[in-house]
Amino acid sequence: MLTKFDPTNLKACLSLLEDITSNANQIQDSVLEAILTRNAHTEYLRGFLNGQVDKQSFKNNLPIVTYEDYHSYIDRIANGEPFDLICDRPIIVLLASEKNCTSLLRNFTWVGQTQSMYCQLLCGLVERGNVSRLGAPFASTFLKVIKFLENHWSELCSNIRTGRVSDWITDANCVSGIGKFLEAPNPELASLIEQECSKTSWEAIVRRLWPNAKCIEAVVTGSMAQYIPMMEFYCGGLPLISTFYVSSECSVGLNLDPLSKPCDVSYTTIPSMAYFEFFEIKKYHQETGHDPVVVDLVDVKVGHDYEPVITTFSGLYRYRLGDVLRVTGFYNNAPQFRFVGRQKVVLSIDMDKTYEEDLLKAVANAKLLLEPHELMLIDFTSRVDSSSFPGHYVLYWELGCKVKDVKVEPDPEVMEECCFAVEECLDSVYRNGRRNDKNIGPLEIKVVRSGAFDELMSFFVSRGSSVSQFKTPRSLTNEEALKILEATVVSKFVSRKVPSWELHELHSSR
């Protein structure tokens, strides 16, 4: 598909980028032709195309699908059937994400991940002067590593002081790997790390422990944006860089301005990665009963929201990613997108439909009320409580304090204001339903104990999710998962005021 080039040659890379983005439409047609030609004999494509591999036959005959439409093929391959059910080449690995968690990744146990995380931190601390950047797949993952460090720094220092790793590290690869770095006792380094970690506040702890680090690489867009204040607190102003937009299904785009602020990050689509189609999302007018109108990559419009539909070399055809992307511009002829969130209604009681994007904005606004009290929102999720009439929204919040070893005791008045602040940010349909509590009851925030969301993650990991890929679901319906959170609730608060309606409508119409 691409001309040969030296990936270490910056000039060659930039020249290639200019070429594929300038000729985006031609590249996309070539990609689709190559995918269909290579995979025409597969069981999946034969069933729709009958050997016809032209673009129009593809668009006319192949349905747009989701994981539910596809999982039977994935299960068959996982159970040993030939890869040519969907693809012309051997499938080496099947990745599970939070969108489609099969039982394929159960071997990635939390125990193994814990040993690996511990040893990576130990190596990083021993080599602290040589660390130029730190990172994790997602901001939430990075913060879990910081929490892990907070719980284990004393033991890590002991290992550095003695030159010997803890006995509970039994994984052969971990033991072998750490032996290359932990070669001798280093009491001076251990004391320096202890001095930093034992301070009252962990503000800028990353910069203090790794003084030569230049940036933090992690996804901080979309649903990860809520973690930015905590990332900034711990990282001490180091640039937060979201380099790629990559999903389990395929790579999509690059951030060509890596030092841009997280709120300004846009990803430039790389037309050679897959064949991309998009259908426009009109949030409150989706249920039309008709198939969505699909447009090609070069035909999207600036300012509009779309869900990507991908066709890949590895056997996915017109597959919905479920993401919401907002077009911010074009680089040559390749569109640039801002990642908005997931395309799904997360909460609904009556006529209201609260989408992930709406919920994230509302919570981001409400948690500002915590800052004057030295509190941080560590993580959250939500659900609808329909056990009483009228039903109401429930948010589970895990709170943390910016000062170490201080008990988290949120002020009831502040928390009630947080409840109200969330409601004030939701749309007019929700706020109208709240009038006189006729259709929707007052929103409730349940504060959970420290570590509750780690327990939630462990539950999903035990069901096959990958630690590195796990993202806290913004809405929970799994009854077992809800029981885990309910068992950790330490206090409850409800909104004492009814959100405005007419006045808010007047402002929003300007």
TrEMBL record:
The GH3 middle domain sits at: 267-342
Give the organism, scientific name.
Brassica rapa subsp. trilocularis
Q: Where is the GH3 C-terminal domain?
A: 357-479
Superkingdom? Eukaryota
Alphabetized UniProt keyword annotations: Ligase
Its lineage opens with: Eukaryota, Viridiplantae, Streptophyta, Embryophyta, Tracheophyta
- One Pfam entry for this protein is GH3
Which family does this protein fall into?
Answer: Belongs to the IAA-amido conjugating enzyme family.
Protein name, UniProt field? Indole-3-acetic acid-amido synthetase GH3.17-like
